[in-house]
């Protein structure tokens, strides 16, 4: 779907290509860790049976200190957007942009109009609760936000709560921030739904594993429209495995490495005089470079795929998103040729 000037269905995977270093997709591991692959392989002999997500629900609830009734496993965060768009009973939807475009695409596919709340680059894409229309009964915000990498304070998010409104906080990248600060996942808050994804940290985009945390009546409404068995047995196995203490400790360590690599990338970009948006906290950065489309093409010729920014509502052709990786000196050297 192309909406106005924005191709809401464009994603970083369309930008990668043979022989290119992938800085366009934000999945951090090139493949799932060995212990997770073993768990997945071990469940294959049980695939004759229909999936049972009971263990996944228990494990996710324990991981976040929630009740089982607060948890709905989904086929990735993406399925959660569709369930919320169709079953939340909303009539006036606000989407805080720039952000991942699938929530808006899901709302439009459900036949609902979308009010875009555009945050401003000039103040580092700061979220101002007053900018969200009072009558919005379903509000989508990302934390940390893709593509801006900005982490909104939990207190600011709470100020978006209002009677008769469901606030949806997409925390798909929060496990990539050490200590998971500003999360709303750990408490049952009236009118708040939190979305999580296992895709990014564990390198399992192809498996489709995510979940919603919300009040039991919201979970029940979403479950009522979820296709039967949409979460497969391997996805449920991954949910259990990735919710355990060992996985959480490993995720925290990966997040620390990502934070260190983020600091190195941002420092390198600033040395080149490149404008970095906001205060990046997620494992990607948004940069503004005049003539970014041309720079992006040149980087491709030099062997690096970065993500265009102009498909995100609120951004234009001067923006690029760059994924954090551990070794980016070659990329920064290539970029130096094209900026300044
Ligand atoms: C902010 C954000 N939320 C959700 C998703 C989708 O996650 P999943 O793979 O769990 O559907 C993405 C994928 O890029 C994303 O960037």
UniProtKB/TrEMBL annotation:
Domain Aminotransferase class I/classII large: 21-324
Cofactor list: pyridoxal 5'-phosphate
Any one Pfam family match given in the protein's UniProt record, by short name: Aminotran_1_2
Keywords of the record: Aminotransferase, Lyase, Pyridoxal phosphate, Transferase
Domain of life: Bacteria
Record EC number: 2.6.1.-
The keyword Lyase belongs to this UniProt entry's keyword annotation: yes
Source organism (scientific name): Prauserella cavernicola
Electron transport recorded as keyword: no
Family statement drawn from the similarity comment of this UniProt entry: Belongs to the class-I pyridoxal-phosphate-dependent aminotransferase family.
Annotated InterPro entries: Aminotransferase_I/II_large, NHTrfase_class1_PyrdxlP-BS, PyrdxlP-dep_Trfase, PyrdxlP-dep_Trfase_major, PyrdxlP-dep_Trfase_small
Single GO molecular function: pyridoxal phosphate binding
Protein name per UniProt: Aminotransferase
Main enzyme class: transferase
């Amino acid at each position: 779907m192309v909406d106005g000037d924005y191709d809401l269905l464009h994603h970083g995977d369309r930008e990668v290509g043979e022989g290119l270093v992938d800085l366009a997709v934000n999945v951090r591991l090139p493949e799932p860790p060995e212990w997770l692959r073993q768990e997945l392989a071990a469940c294959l002999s049980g695939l004759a049976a229909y999936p049972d997500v009971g263990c996944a629900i228990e494990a996710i609830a324990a991981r976040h200190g929630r009740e089982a009734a607060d948890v709905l496993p989904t086929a990735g965060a993406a399925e959660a957007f569709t369930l919320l768009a169709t079953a939340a009973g909303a009539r006036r939807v606000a989407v805080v942009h720039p952000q991942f475009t699938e929530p808006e695409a899901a709302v439009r596919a459900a036949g609902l109009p979308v009010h875009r709340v555009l945050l401003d680059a000039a103040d580092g894409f700061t979220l101002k609760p007053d900018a969200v229309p009072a009558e919005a009964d379903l509000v989508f915000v990302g934390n940390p936000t893709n593509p801006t990498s900005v982490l909104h304070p939990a207190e600011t998010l709470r100020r978006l709560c209002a009677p008769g409104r469901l606030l949806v906080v997409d925390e798909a990248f929060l496990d990539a921030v050490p200590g998971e600060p500003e999360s709303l996942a750990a408490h049952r808050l009236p009118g708040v739904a939190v979305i999580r994804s296992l895709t990014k940290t564990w390198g399992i985009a192809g498996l489709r594993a995510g979940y919603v945390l919300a009040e039991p009546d919201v979970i029940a409404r979403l479950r009522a429209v979820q296709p039967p068995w949409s979460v497969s047995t391997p996805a449920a196995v991954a949910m259990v495995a990735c919710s355990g203490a060992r996985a959480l400790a490993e995720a925290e360590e990966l997040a620390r490495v990502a934070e260190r690599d983020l600091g190195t990338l941002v420092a390198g970009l600033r040395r080149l005089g490149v404008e970095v948006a906001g205060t990046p906290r997620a494992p990607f950065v948004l940069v503004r470079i005049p003539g970014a489309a041309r720079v992006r093409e040149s980087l491709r010729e030099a062997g690096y795929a970065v993500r265009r920014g102009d498909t995100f509502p609120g951004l234009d052709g001067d923006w690029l998103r760059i994924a954090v990786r551990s070794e980016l000196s070659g990329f920064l050297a290539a970029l130096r040729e094209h900026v300044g």
